[in-house]
Amino acid sequence: TPGSPVYSVGHRNVQGLAWDSAGRLWATEFGPEVDDELNLIEPGADYGWPDVTGAPHDSRFVDAQVVWPSTASSSPSGMAIVDDVAYIGGLRGQRLWQVPLVAGTAGEPVSHFDGSYGRLRDVVAGSDGSLLVATNEPGNARILRVRTG
Asked: Where is the Glucose/Sorbosone dehydrogenase domain (predicted)?
């Protein structure tokens, strides 16, 4: 609706938001126990929750660009986009996901640091092109500097 502060609807549990170099908004989102998502957010679009999750190929809703079938391996949290690559922290999955973004389409996710640093809560682009990754480990939370490229 023109003039509405609501940008999009049908989200379950958005964790991270970031813009790519073309000004497109991307979001990470937890599914209920399956179908964690990376979504390209379009103004006025409906992403399906609570009716559907993932990529149901239902014309009423926008399909997720990436669907992780199990929250145990993903739980995508905070995200940064650097040089049109999304870097996404994984909570339960305890890994850093790297997802190439090309012209509004997400490529195949690649995981890094599988379990090495525990739960990864947030990712921020550093001023030097590196990533700052916040861990979420009770009694041992850290901020890691990760070089890209």
From this structure: 5-139
